[in-house]
Amino acid sequence: MDVLSQLRHQLADYTNSLHRDGFLDDQFSQLQQLQDESSPDFAMEVVSLFFEDCQKLVTNMARALELQAVDFKQVDSSVHQLKGSSSSVGAARIKNLCVAFKTCCDSQNRDGCMRCLQEVNRECVLLKNKLQTLFRLEQQIISAGGSIPM
Amino acid sequence: MGKQNESSFHGLHSEWKSWRKLLVLLCILGGLAVGSIRFPLNFDGKDRVSDSCEGELVRHFNVSKSQLHALASLYSDSEKIASLECTKELGPGPSTTDRISCAMKLMCSKKQELMDEDETALQNSISDASSALVSMLVDNTLQTSATVVYAYASGMMERCWWMQASKEFPSVVYGYVFGTMKRCWWILAGVGCLCLSVNLIPLTTWWKKQFLTVFFCGGIALSFYTFWSGSREFHSRREETLASMCDERARMLQDQFNVSMNHVHALAILVSTFHHGKNPSAIDQKTFGEYAERTSFERPLTSGVAYALKVVHSEREQFEKQHGWRIKKMESDDQALVQDCIPEKLDPAPVQDEYAPVIFSQESVAHIVSIDMMSGKEDRENILRARASGKGVLTSPFKLLKSNNLGVVLTFAVYNVPLSPHATSEQRIEATVGYLGASYDVPSLVEKLLHQLASRQTIVVNVYDTTNASAPILMYGTDVAEDMSLFRASNLDFGDPMRKHEMHCRFKQKPPEPTSAIDSSTVILAIVLLVSYICNAAINKIEKVEEEFREMTQLKVRAEAADVAKSQFLATVSHEIRTPMNGVLGMLQMLMDTELNDKQIDYAETAHRSGTELISLINEVLDHAKIESGRLELEAVPFELRPVLDNVFSLFSGKSSEKGIELAIYVSDQVPQVVIGDPGRFRQIITNLVGNSVKFTHDKGHIFVSVHLADEVTISPVEVQDPVLKLSFGLAQDTSSKPYNTLSGSLVVNRWKSWEHFKILDRVDIGDSSTIRLLVTVEDTGVGIPVDAQSRIFTPFMQADSSTSRMYGGTGIGLSISKRLVDLMGGEIGFVSECDVGSTFSFTVCLRKGELSSLDAKGQHCDATPVEFRGSKALVIDQKCIRAEVTRYHLERLGISVHIASTLKAACCFLSGGVTSGASAPVGLSMILIDKDVWDEEKDVSVHRFLRDPSGNGIVEFEADLPKIILLATAIAPDERHELKLAGLIDDVLMKPLRLGGLMVCLQEALGSGKKSRVRRKKPTNLQNLLRGKHILVVDDNVVNRRVAQGALERYGAIVTCVCSGRAAVELLEPPHKFDACFMDRHMPEMDGFEATRHIRARETQINEQLASGEVSIEKYGNKPCWHTPIMAITADVIQATSEECRKCGMDDFVAKPFKEEQLYNAVARFFESSGQSG
């Protein structure tokens, strides 16, 4: 067993665990399939975009929820955005969280929203770490001269 | 429109109804009118009889009309109707008629003579003639005729005197008749007005009732008036009759008296001439008495005549001496002629200036000779007056002793010299020599007279001496009369100016009831009552009906409103239910994506499935509601019929193979490939029918859908060309053979019966050649529909019975929707069903023939038939002809020519025959399709092997060239399949139902695996081809989504531009632009996808219009004559409503988020395929 196959195995395992734990879904695989010679870092690019967006949205929501008169409509639209983005990248757990978040928004449940926001924040950080690990593994494979299986 | 029809029909109906009512009423009224006219005429039958008599008389006797009129009037006037009717009755008898006519003629000739003669002679002759006639006819014992003739004779006499009066009579009669007629017309006019008011004039009921009341009152008044005027007329006529009769009698009496008086006068002249003129006298007592006796027939009414001489006192003694007797005095004053006393016993007359002793007398009164007439007071006055006046004078009536009747004495003075008429009374007294007296028996005179006249029984005649007006003396008759009401007094002139006599007439009987007046008024009353009752009933009925009609109209309006409200409610509610249901389904979907244990997944899946079913049910209800409220509009797009059917079958293939039912589809080659219509709805109908069939067919049999042109079955079954139709018809003719020659061998109902009631089949041609009528038949071998439920299966929510829904589920709305859809497509649906045999549903739809090219242009052409099988040959081995035909149909669609063998043996023969003869058929044979039934039946494996290796040499030369053996099966166990494949007996198993796609894939696999991979690779390559170099705009506010979309599209070679707002998209898509397509997110802040699309579409339409009108140059807009940028929505929820909404605002399609390759391909292929191919 050479390093490359070991790494590959590791990557597969890791990806499987991410899928199994519900962090990611098929969409992420699709995203990965989209990257080819012309855009080798497509997935990473999208993911980083997603996290930027995430950060921005979370900040927005946090600010909105801190206000006395919470503009749930604004929060809702942010959640919607977040949901859209997360489903695009295949961040299944965040997406599901967003569904719950949206319900809280619809019922104008401030505490629920705060809780959801915290969860989303935590999940984001969690996913970011996981994906960073994933991408690092991929980088390692590429640097080892291998290609990433699709 | 239906409603309008309905109302117009209702209007027509009610109009007709009112006309009918009017007609009936008119009939009744007509009858009444005829009756009422006839009735009064019958009343006046008298006049009619006289009219008819008149005609007869004119004909027979040539009598002038005026005479006859007079005669007739006399008859009726003097109430000789009975006699007249006798005449009429006797009319037909020839002998009698002759006799009467003879009598008549006689009368007529008599009459002619009489005209010239004087009255007296006339009277005599008529009396003689009539008596002669009477005697003659009495001899002939024709009593009636005699009476008639006698009556006629009397009539003639009367006629002479009453010409004037009788002339007036007809006018009276006519007046009466016309009066009655006029009243009838009044009634008719009233009835007419009433009818009009009841039926035609749109008056309120109140007015109608007022009219009726007025009519009723008027009618009653008219009836009473008729009675009053009728009875008045009756009375006046009676009065007239009495007057004329009385006058007639008075005149007759007077005339007879006058005649008699003349004779007495003549006798006086005789005495004067022969007694006083001769000296010595030529007359003595004996001569006088004899003469007077012999001429007494001339004075039938005088009881006797006597002559008294004027003797002055100075001559008394000489006179007494001369005659030898004393002048005697009358015994009493008031009894002038005392017959029973003996003259000798009487005292001599006292001394007076003058005496008037009787010297001559008729023998009957010979006893009064020698009595001095001057001694009686009455006689003295009489004598004095007579000699002074020179005329006959009368005494007042007194009792004649002999007859005990009242009598009068007529006295004439006899002069010795002829006196001039102007001589003074002194001269007359001077010249007087004697007096001639005659006693008249008045009662017998009158009696005799009355006896001569008919109808003396009807009136009572009294004759009075009214000289003393205050105390009239009754001369004749009695005071007894029942009817005192009518009275007539006629003056009698007996030639004595001093004395006045009167004749009083009365009717003996009380007047009869004025029947004619009573009858006519009763009739009028009856008519009025009847008509009023009818009209009242009619008015009430009309009122009631109108009231009911109003109620019904209200109810109808309410019912219709309720119906519309129901449909709208259904449509709204089902739409509203769908939205939350989508949420439920979406959530369930998400729930299933989360971590769940098996139990939870099962629960979630069940919930999801139920939700899906609920949605489909709601869709059905929505459809139904839409159709009911008339909001469903059918599309008219070109589509391919056969793939649509394939799709339907792919839906049911799972279920049917589970149940072991064979599904088959057959489309006649007459049916064009492309038709124009609504594919969705067409598919829905078939899906409904097939779904039902699948639902109600258990474990055996088949479901067979066939599509033909309606024209194929309109011709006689014998001439049918189509093999499937032919077979099914043959089956219907011969049901004895078993197993049945059907798809699965089960018995089926006769499908020809299912469309025999279709009207559309009877229509020879619709005229438009592009219109085609499809006949679709769905045949199953299910449980069938019970006969009692067959009538209501097209009623919504109605299943065969309530247990059905428990057993099979479903709402029973499917067939109702199907029927409505078929109706909308201008077709008909029908079925035939038998319990435990199966059902066959047939329906027709009108579609238009489409062109293949039109389909391509629209870009909806999904699967082009591959050309790779074209020209191949196949052998189909199947014992069921219909099934073999179905297989042939599918293979021929792929361009494969087919040979059918019904058994394996036949197939072997075919194959080996081909080998031995070297014919081309087996050589080119590329596949053998064997039905599993045939395969299973033949247990001998060698036969199976023979198929594999027909040459039998066991050497497999070129495997590829050998025909591939494919097993056709409905259900096959995986083990068996594997086994057969391993044994190398077959190449593949093709699962039924046969579908083009499945068949194609199977054949491709069997004939070459290389082709298969190529086919699989086709699509992505295509997508790349399609999208390469295309400018695509992605509009999404979410940066991540944007990037993902961009990445996905760029991967296929598209040049992607991204914008983050709807407004930016609108700006970029302002023509001319370079974009070929646009993907747009629905939800965006500021301007969402729908609004942006609306803006873009509005702008495009504007520019297209400008281009079309040439306002702007086409060069300026990139040489594109028509701008329409395909816009696709990117959406996360893929529920139906969204797609509808997308289309509504001008979007072309939608793709689900996140992008999936296949979906993306399908979406963009529509827009780029044609241009991509051309480019």
Automatic annotation (TrEMBL), chain A:
The lineage of its organism: Eukaryota, Viridiplantae, Streptophyta, Embryophyta, Tracheophyta. GO terms for molecular function: histidine phosphotransfer kinase activity; protein histidine kinase binding. It comes from the Eukaryota. Keywords: Acetylation, Cytokinin signaling pathway, Cytoplasm, Nucleus, Phosphoprotein, Two-component regulatory system. This is Histidine-containing phosphotransfer protein. It holds the Pfam family Hpt. The modification Phosphohistidine is found at H80. The keyword Ribosomal protein does not apply. Histidine-containing phosphotransfer domain (HPt) contains an active histidine that mediates the phosphotransfer. It comes from Linum trigynum. It is found in: Cytoplasm, Cytosol; Nucleus. The keyword Lyase does not apply. One of its GO terms (biological process) is cytokinin-activated signaling pathway. InterPro entries: AHP1-5/YPD1 (IPR045871), HPT_dom_sf (IPR036641), Sig_transdc_His_kin_Hpt_dom (IPR008207). Functions as a two-component phosphorelay mediators between cytokinin sensor histidine kinases and response regulators (B-type ARRs). Plays an important role in propagating cytokinin signal transduction. Residues 39-134 form the HPt domain.
Automatic annotation (TrEMBL), chain B:
Its main location: endoplasmic reticulum. The chain crosses the membrane at residues 22-41, 184-204. It is a multi-pass membrane protein. One of its GO terms (cellular component) is nucleus. GO terms for molecular function: cytokinin receptor activity; phosphorelay sensor kinase activity; protein histidine kinase binding. Keywords: Coiled coil, Endoplasmic reticulum, Kinase, Membrane, Phosphoprotein, Receptor, Transferase, Transmembrane, Transmembrane helix. It comes from the Eukaryota. InterPro entries: 2C_system_His_kinase, CHASE_dom, CHASE_sf, CheY-like_superfamily, HATPase_C_sf, HATPase_dom, His_kinase_dom, HisK_dim/P_dom. CDD domains: HATPase_EvgS-ArcB-TorS-like (cd16922), HisKA (cd00082), REC_hyHK_CKI1_RcsC-like (cd17546). Residues 279-504 form the CHASE domain. This is histidine kinase.
